[in-house]
Amino acid sequence: MSLAPRVVLVHRTTEYEELVAHHGTHGQAAFFLSSRGRDIEELADRHRRTRAALAEVTAAIPLTWRQSRVERRDLDRFLFAPEDVVVVVGQDGLVANVAKYLAGQPVLGVDSDPGRNPGVLVRHRPSEVARLLTVADREVDELTMVEAVADDTQRLLALNEIYLGAAGHQTARYRLGLDDDGGAVEAQASSGVLVGTGTGATGWLRSVWRERGAQLRLPGPAEERLLWFVREAWPSPATGTSLVAGELTAAARLRLTVESERLIAFGDGMEGDALELTWGQSVRVGVCRERLRLVG
Predict the structure, then answer these.
(1) Is 165 helix (H, G, I), strand (E, B) or coil?
(2) N or C: which end of the chain has fewer CB within 10 A?
(3) 75-122: per-residue pLDDT in tens?
(4) 3-class SS letters over 108-127
């Protein structure tokens, strides 16, 4: 007998909840904010809208379906099943956070606070969930992801971008090259390397792209093409700045060999779930074979 589908509701702790947990009570949190010229009601209103959205989405799940919930900080310990339908209630970035842990399950993004989120990934309102659950495995857009694979088989996936550099914003030292560039590499010292997708082109990648004069064409979300940028490369007798930006097609790979005691690679802002890279290790970054299946 096949199992009924399971809806996995993904959410994150609200700013209001974090503040009250830190200060102990609503009153103490309100006093703390008022001493800094802020009103806690702004956060409390957003908290109530988020909880209302979660309640409406929960009520839309068919009674014969199974359901589970997972908070953002627990994603790396949650086991998604093949038959799951993942419903993300929150901000666009929460969809990116969950993408790396999936293997083809459809994702339905629900905007918990319309007007504050761009809605690139959380495209729907809670009132639409009941209908969309019935078509979630058919009406999907397949979005390109980026992967980093280290020479010790560590692997990292991301929907928006992967950052490679030093923890704590120190200078990263490494050798950089392209697999199809005849073995040519350049020693560099920089603030790190950013490799992003077409979905990431709506966020961090776009800001770097604009600073560089927009000479490269940004990829589309479903396009099998990435852009990469070296951040603040430093010229010196031992390090160069000639290899600082480019694009990667589906088969191309950017290779970075560590020349620091420790570098990290993390995706979509989740530095707590990073690859650890030590002196002499290499990591290759490129288009990922897996896609995020986002309900359109």
Answers:
(1) strand
(2) N
(3) 989 999 999 999 999 999 999 999 999 999 999 999 998 888 888 999
(4) EEEECCECCECCCCCCECHH
